[in-house]
Prior knowledge:
This protein is mainly alpha-helical. Helices cover about 40% and strands about 10% of the residues.
Amino acid sequence: MQTKVRCAEKKCNPVKRNLSEKEKISFGKLKRDIIKPGICTLCGACAASCEYITIEDGAPKLVGPCKACGVCYYQCPRTITTEEGLIGCLRYAYAARSAIPEIKGQDGGVVTSLLLYALDEGLIDCAVVTIRQKNKPGNLCQ
Ligand code: SF4
Ligand code: SF4
């Protein structure tokens, strides 16, 4: 049994090291990879995820001591550019379609069905979603 535990610990070490390396990503990398090349969409996710980032003069700016936690970088939708980054490491992938006839979602209505289930079961209080409207941003619906 002890041998098995030691083996498991050994297998875990590289994963821990990789995670701690990833955590050291700072605002500088976000600036270098996304903001300076001009591919920032000003979505505000980085500013929303860190008290030391604000949006000023049309770009995210660091206004406090960066702790190099990497959160802003991984929150940024523009840093996910590889296939692995888009879907992450996965064990299984499924294609699905809602079984509720009234639901005609863009991609089979799966998200709508899951949200309805979560609302019905009291798992969530509300869901913020968008709809498409010509020449207007989508309404927020509950
Ligand atoms: S989230 Fe804030 S503290 Fe963390 S890396 Fe980005 S700027 Fe630095
Ligand atoms: S999260 Fe990325 S795309 Fe969004 S404002 Fe920050 S740098 Fe720009």
